[in-house]
Amino acid sequence: MKKHIAVIGYGGQGAWHCRQIEKSDVVTLAGTYDIKEARMEAAKADGVRTYPSSKAIFEDPAVDAVVIATPNDDHKRLVVDALAAGKHVICEKPVEMSVAALDEMIDAARKSGKIFTVHQNRRWDVDFLGVKKIIEDGDIGEPLRVESRIHGSRGIPSDWRCQKKHGGGMILDWGVHLIDQMLQLFGQKIVRVYCTVTHITNDEVDDGFRLELFFEDGKTVYIEVGTYNFIAMPRFYMQCKKGSAIIADWTQKAKVAKMTAWHERDVLPVQTAAGITKTMAPRDEITLKEYEVDRPVSDVHDFYRNFCAAVDGREPQLITHAEVRRVMQVMEAAFASAESGQTVTVSI
Prior knowledge:
alpha/beta, Rossmann fold, five-stranded parallel β-sheet, 9 helices, about 25% strand
């Protein structure tokens, strides 16, 4: 039997959830509530049932679970209230703005015995799944460094996302996704974090950042988000022990270059702008194999399928409290590094 889910917040993401729920094979839409009357009218125009308040949702015995899709600073209150009302909860990312606040939510979930998870939907992005597949296949060996970038040119949306009190800024908006993706690839302990931020279009919150994570086994991750980049750099670039891989953007296949032999017998120098070089001479087909990797098949509805299976006790919760907490710890360290201008020593 399908689970009945209500959505609190009918902004861009809340409306997206409503559309996805209406198409789902495991959940059905009970309705929505938004504090803004204009958004309530928009929901009605879209044919979505509306509730008069969040309290009315919590008191509806037909509602099995609640999606929280409000500005970030209201997440904790609504999550705790929903759990106390006996509802399972899906919270939009970032789940909160501090580890301390998240810990209160996790504690409320434990006391309630209900499922509480976070909508880290970009684990289903095909570009990320392409990188994951290359690493798991092992054809170009163990990864040494992975670079992940999202570049746009329109600044921050002129809504609550550009306001600090509501948890705006790119670290909390896009960073939470890209950090979560990287931590799915690397389970080793992070020992250092270095981050810088930009304020090109917004003085109140970061409109971009550059974040480097250093793992205790020597691997590094570089994450960059920019909202003032009119030419985007590649979505992913990866160095491995036996080759490299690149994904231009989420519409493209991964391109892989596998080293088949280290030395060529005779490397001829190549002419560059002002001289010759052997070091940067291109490889040939004798020592390098190049190929493409097909884009993986992905279904965002798998998130709700796992959620319902976890509610029924048939599967473990896919996006766990420990994983969400680790991402929050990294974001806190990123803010601390950006504020101090120094590398932060951590154990995450």
